[in-house]
Each structure stands twice: as C-alpha cells, then as structure tokens.
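Something for you to look into today, if you have time. Could you write out one complete protein record for me, on any chain you like? Leave the record below and I will have a look.
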Amino acid sequence: MDIILIPGLWLDASSWDEVVPALVRAGHRPHALTLPGMESKDADRSEITLLDHVGAVVKAIDSFDPAGGKVVLVGHSGGGTIAHIAADVRPDRVARVVFVDSVPPGDGGLINDELPVENGEIPLPDWGFFEAEDLVDLDDELRAAFRERAIPSPARVASDRVRLSDERRYEVPATVITCEFSSEMVQKWIGQSLAFTQELAKIRHVDYVDLPTGHWPQFTRPEELGRAIATSVGPA
C-alpha cells in the first residue's frame, strides 16, 4: 500500500525517518512529504496558505496510478487536518486516513490560530508554551534535536479556515492514534458532543489505537508508531 506521510507544524519529511522502517518491513511503500515553504529554514513561506499544503498532498495522491489502488494518508497533528481536507477533495482515492494525535476539524475550523506569529511565520515556541501532556517522553536530548531541526511554519497554514464540501469523506475509514489522551477519553468527549469531536463523530468507520506518550510519537516512540500505522492499514 502507498502511504503518504504528512508532517505537522515545524516539521518536514525527515521527521518520519524513524517511523518508515516499520512500514517498509510490513511491506508498505511510505512517501514522506515536505510541504511548501518547509524546504528549509531560509525558504520564503510568506505567501504559503493552507490550500497550498492541501494541494501538495492532492498532487501526491494524483501522482499514483488509479489502477494501482487507493492510498493511505497519515497526518500528524496539523497534518491530520491537511489529510482530512485532502480526503474531502479526493474521497474516491483514499483508502484510510490515520490521524496521529489529531482529530479532523469540520468546515470552518482551523489548525491553531493561537500560536505566536513572527513576520508571517510561526517559529517553534519555547517549551513552556506547551501543555505538560505534549512533552511526555520528550527528554532534553530529543527536545534539543527537535529544536535544531524545527522549521518555522507559514502562519496562514495554521489560521486559514478549513473548507469542506464532499460528504463522501465520511465514508473514508479512519484510525485515530491517541497519544496525549486515551481513546477512551476521546470517545467520552464524542459522547458529550464536544465541538472539536463533531467532525470525527460523523465518520462512519473509526478505529482507535492507544500509544501513550507526548504529542510527537515520531520522536518519542517511532518504532511503535510505525507498527501502529502498519496495523491500522492492514496487509500490504
């Protein structure tokens, strides 16, 4: 199965490097993306929008021959939002969306408009900005490595409104890999009809996988994350 790996904010394709081997061993073909404006710390990202990132994923989907079957989209954090929009654009080409510590927003939602913006981009904030749950297992060495590799994200990617139009997206199966909070807690929030879970509640078939760690399992538990993705996708 062709698996398109979509990074979250501040990250490029290399953030999936330690996850890829488990997918390859399972017989899959992973394709990690570097999204527009994230090519380097010096790239011009001043005009990059959320739709530019979605367009890059749709282009990747379209690069595969339809006769070869559907693809799987895996999105970490804000990358889960991008994956969900891409599934809305190409619902007939996506076999499954895997949300890594992420849930899909509904129409009009956004990734995060509360992040500090500097000159049209969002640098990785100081660690004190994040909740304690985000940072579980992210020790000093991993934090230093993350900060060294971090690339500022385009401001509009985080703050542009999500636009969805094809309800066939609800027929695309999904897997939610829960890290900061348990799957039991997420399903409890769905039962309470909390606003941020309402889009997820509309997806017809959702599986849950618990991977207890912080918000960046590709760094803190990469092997386990790779296996969880491979299991959710099924046989190659």
Q: What stands out?
A: DSSP finds nine helices and eight strands in the chain.
